[in-house]
From TrEMBL:
<dbReference type="GO" id="GO:0005524">
    <property type="term" value="F:ATP binding"/>
</dbReference>
<protein>
    <recommendedName>
        <fullName>Glycinamide ribonucleotide synthetase</fullName>
    </recommendedName>
</protein>
<keyword id="KW-0658">Purine biosynthesis</keyword>
<dbReference type="Pfam" id="PF01071">
    <property type="entry name" value="GARS_A"/>
</dbReference>
<keyword id="KW-0067">ATP-binding</keyword>
<dbReference type="GO" id="GO:0009113">
    <property type="term" value="P:purine nucleobase biosynthetic process"/>
</dbReference>
<dbReference type="InterPro" id="IPR011054">
    <property type="entry name" value="Rudment_hybrid_motif"/>
</dbReference>
<dbReference type="InterPro" id="IPR037123">
    <property type="entry name" value="PRibGlycinamide_synth_C_sf"/>
</dbReference>
<dbReference type="InterPro" id="IPR020561">
    <property type="entry name" value="PRibGlycinamid_synth_ATP-grasp"/>
</dbReference>
<keyword id="KW-0436">Ligase</keyword>
<keyword id="KW-0547">Nucleotide-binding</keyword>
<dbReference type="GO" id="GO:0006164">
    <property type="term" value="P:purine nucleotide biosynthetic process"/>
</dbReference>
<comment type="similarity">
    <text>Belongs to the GARS family.</text>
</comment>
<dbReference type="InterPro" id="IPR000115">
    <property type="entry name" value="PRibGlycinamide_synth"/>
</dbReference>
<dbReference type="GO" id="GO:0004637">
    <property type="term" value="F:phosphoribosylamine-glycine ligase activity"/>
</dbReference>
<feature type="domain" description="Phosphoribosylglycinamide synthetase C-domain">
    <location>
        <begin position="199"/>
        <end position="295"/>
    </location>
</feature>
<dbReference type="InterPro" id="IPR020560">
    <property type="entry name" value="PRibGlycinamide_synth_C-dom"/>
</dbReference>
């Protein structure tokens, strides 16, 4: 990983190019869609031109392996249980095609044997630092795991989108705001109200022109049909309610995240997609393969010794 003050400085990578290529990320509060994964010099040069001349950049060598995130919640003194893992699907189109949107869907599950989970052990090393900083809340370490080791990609000190919706799918029926309120007031809850033995899924449902350009305000008001009255498992974002009709706000094109849960990945996925099919809106778009390949990736992580073979993962991969 290298940091550069601007795109011009980042061109130095071209002089010592190493295959299979590099990931280019903006440093700062920019759209995650501005992350580029490039595998040749020409595309690398083009990607640098997409940033302003003074944009700070982070450039990382591509490592082939299994990408997985590990999240823990910290109360200012110690970690809350349970930890959780996320497998995220970032490309816009089914089959990992299309532009990088930052997130098109997630699979989340709680860790049932943290003492035997190498990914959790790595995250817990941050404990003394977080305590010294008085940090309270979730923190996530995104990594690439290979047979040769675990490589950190980024650390996120906030809730993850759309991982929080997938996590909520496996939480006990409790207002998530109560958890944040308890942490903020220093009540120090012993555990998060998360159900072990369950998988949670969140699918991002959008409308054009997302993700290619900003929404046209003239499109505001597009009707969204099929939402249940209680909105259970539907996490609305770019939507407003007008005379009992849900409509598109035309701010960014991400209408909602559709959730599902189950004791197996297949069960959770089926529940989420059944709900997604119930939504009727002109131009609706979402990936139809969220959680595909997850069983294979989990099996590989277990084989390398990074994940414990708990009952949940045995159900997931057999």
């Amino acid at each position: 990983t290298e940091s550069f003050a601007n795109p011009t400085a980042a061109k130095s990578i071209l002089d010592g190019w190493i295959n299979p290529g590099y990931a280019i990320k903006p440093s700062g509060n920019l759209d995650t869609g501005k992350t580029f994964i490039v595998r040749d010099k020409d595309t690398y040069s083009w990607a640098l031109e997409q940033f302003s001349g003074d944009q700070n950049l982070i450039v990382q060598r591509i490592v082939e392996g299994v990408e997985i995130s590990t999240e823990g919640w910290f109360n200012g003194e110690d970690w809350l249980n349970p930890f959780n893992h996320t497998i995220e699907y970032k490309r816009f189109l089914t089959g990992d095609l299309g532009p990088n949107t930052g997130c098109s869907g997630n699979l989340v599950w709680a860790v049932d044997k943290p003492q035997k989970d190498q990914l959790v052990k790595n995250l817990k090393k941050l404990g003394p630092f977080l305590k010294a900083a008085g940090y309270k809340g979730p923190i996530d370490l995104n990594t690439i795991a290979t047979s040769k080791g675990i490589f950190a990609l980024e650390l996120t000190a906030r809730i993850g989108y759309d991982a929080i919706e997938a996590l909520y799918e496996i939480m006990e029926p409790q207002d998530l705001g109560e958890v944040f309120d308890s942490l903020g007031r220093g009540d120090k809850p012993v555990d998060l109200p998360v159900k072990k033995g369950m998988f949670g899924i969140a699918i991002r449902l959008t409308v054009p022109p997302y993700p290619h350009r900003k929404a046209d305000k003239r499109d505001k008001g597009l009707p969204i049909i099929g939402l249940p009255e209680d909105l259970d498992h539907f996490y609305l974002t770019d939507v407003f309610l007008n005379n009992n009709l849900y409509q598109w706000s035309a701010s960014d094109g991400v209408l909602m995240k559709v959730g599902g849960n189950g004791r197996t990945i297949k069960e959770a996925t089926a529940a989420a997609y059944e709900r997604a099919k119930s939504i009727r809106v002109e131009g609706a778009q979402y990936r139809v393969d969220i959680a595909s390949g997850a069983e294979r990736n989990i099996s590989q992580l277990k084989k390398w010794g990074y994940l414990a073979s708990g009952s949940l993962l045995r159900r997931a991969v057999g």
